[in-house]
User: Fold this.
Amino acid sequence: MRKRPYVCGLDAALDVIDGKWKVLIIWALNHQRCRFGELRRLVPGISEKVLVQQLRELEADGIVHREIYDVVPPKVEYSLTGLGGELNTALGPLGAWGKRRMAVLEEAGRHG
Amino acid sequence: MRKRPYVCGLDAALDVIDGKWKVLIIWALNHQRCRFGELRRLVPGISEKVLVQQLRELEADGIVHREIYDVVPPKVEYSLTGLGGELNTALGPLGAWGKRRMAVLEEAGRHG
DNA sequence: GTAAGTACGCACTTTTTTGTGCGTACTTGC
DNA sequence: GCAAGTACGCACAAAAAAGTGCGTACTTAC
Assistant:
């Protein structure tokens, strides 16, 4: 979407992940579909502007589904698509690697 | 190193990956240990400043090993550490996911 | 009637990241 | 003697990303 053509699959994957908060958003949506306001509370520290922005990008990339209910006050629900779920799964090993690294860092921190 | 504390393992992993060229560097080093100049040629488009910078960060994070030979002209060789190799492996599923996405995009491009 | 919540949009600033162009001290090849 | 290669360092510029503050049109709660 932003930097095509990609040189490899990893490149293509990292492009949709790119953004300070995207993995947190994906992670939150993997647990539950939710509304804009809920999501903002689930991702503490994010600004509304950036949340909208990153949701739009994730939607354009087919990771997130946006459902609008024509009611007042407005209601919109976000959820992961199938592709989004697969992405989340593909991130698993990376998360496990990072967890081991965190443990190592913590050990080093205790002795340093 | 840069944004600790991490909220989860994925956060910790993405932090060491963070940088426009880091995965390309890791990928190149996974195939062969190489010198600075070689690496620059293997990663076309990167500036020398940024290559040095990202190598230093990867070294500080324990992903890359830097070996200096005290000869003239200077010779330095970069290679992946064990941790770096594991990281590369952990990136596998993500790369596979991205590859599928690329195929889908290409299909869509042909019809759009 | 006033504040708060709904899901954003828009203009602007700040921060972060990346790129550009130059210099080093030395050797080899022409 | 002059260019090119070695592996960088440094000052600065450009670009990209994120954050800030304010406004919308409407409703419910107090």
